[in-house]
Amino acid sequence: MTHIMTRYNQRILSCLMVFSSFFFILHFVKPAKAAEGFKKAQPGYEWSFPRDHGAHLEFQTEWWYFTGHFQDEQGRQFGFQWTVFRRALRPLTQQLKEKEGLNQKSAWRTNQLYLGHLALSDLSEKKFYYFESIQRGVLALAGASENELKVWLPQMKAETLNSHILSLRGEGKKANSQLLIKLELELPEHPLLHGDQGFSAKGAEKDEKGQVNGSYYYSYTHLPTKGSLQLDGKRVDVTGQAWMDHEFSSSTLSKTQIGWDWLSLPLKNGAALMLFRVRDERGSQYDYYSGTYLDTLGNSHALKREDIKWIAKKVWQSPQSGAKYPVEWSLKISRFDLNVKLKAHFNHQELITQKSAQVVYWEGSVEAKIQHQGKQYQSDAYLEMTGYARKFEQQI
């Protein structure tokens, strides 16, 4: 299913280590010179939609990310992850074009790589399926529009059909499994901007210009979803709810940051919670916490370390990678009277992406038992955990 690359491109890919959801691609460049020539995310970005749903080629890395849950007519429940990444190999300045002869048109010459991760968690059967793909951004084999949400690989495609409907398709094939997802998602009018009006810092350390590393980051949190699922030849209609993230940047994590934990949690009556923690090898006191709480009136509230009490309670060790992942957590946001107990629907939701990103991470469906402003209920969330198999080393 993956594109057959030249030996040269395979070597580039192994260096890039491009990765799933929102931090993955940020890390694998040198902290100083690797991002020169690209724009760096900083506070003060002026958002414009639908333009900002599209690609931002002046930034080095970008990804479009969907997770969610749906069920068939018999009540069989599933979680899914759909992610496409764009990675620029170098900034396409006029000087570079002249130096390398890039003004001489070649149908196979490209400055962009696209990677895809597709995963399905069968919650009823406790089975996990994942697929990966990679393609160069040439000959319309893979790409992303700069004007609207339209991004694709041969096996994956997301595009807006109109101002409020988004089409999502993902296909994966292995020797022992086949998957096809076709979904339509309803988009609300306004996205949720994280951090400082959409600038999401990834640490507190500042560079020589006094700037912190970060990205531009927004979400849609409650997307009514319908469509079909075809698994191993059997097709069923499904309905559910999805979450969308879109993020772009040219920054890196710091040398001492070793991985992260990220959570998307839909709450009742339109409320929602996004959290992340970037772990630091120097000790938990250096971990960086951030998040956004969306209240029932549609107002967003930025969360800082002092707002968040997020504690791992139980660990599962992967028999494939040996990584030890926290699969049960307690979470408390006192500021909004929110207490949550999180537990993986099942433990083995690990992706080992040797054919694309060449990294190991856990991304899966979790159940959430919630006490929120005097009410108790359950919800389904998505949790991502990286850096547990090994520390992410800077590669190029």
In short:
The chain is mainly β. 4% of the residues lie in helices and 52% in strands.
Level-1 CATH class name: Mainly Beta
Average pLDDT reading: 87
Instruction: State the secondary-structure class.
Output: mainly beta
Supply the number of helical segments. Answer: 2
Radius of gyration: 20 Å
Straight-line distance between termini: 27 Å
Strand content of the residues, in percent? over 45%
- What is the N-to-C order of secondary-structure elements (H for helix, E for strand)? HEEHEEEEEEEEEEEEEEEEEEEEE
> What do we call the CATH topology?
AttH-like fold
Shape type: globular
Largest beta-sheet details: 13 strands, antiparallel
- Return the domain count: 1
The portion of residues assigned to helices is under 10%
Notes on the structure:
The protein is mostly beta strands and 396 residues long. The chain has one domain: AttH-like fold (Beta Barrel), CATH 2.40.370. Helix content is 4%, strand content 52%. The strands form two sheets. Strands 1, 2, 3, 4, 5, 6, 7, 8, 9, 10, 11, 12 and 13 form a 13-stranded antiparallel beta sheet that branches. Strands 14, 15, 16, 17, 18, 19, 20, 21, 22 and 23 form a ten-stranded antiparallel beta sheet that branches. The longest helix has 10 residues.
Please describe the structure with a list of short key phrases separated by commas or semicolons.
396 residues; mainly beta; 13-stranded antiparallel sheet; 4% helix
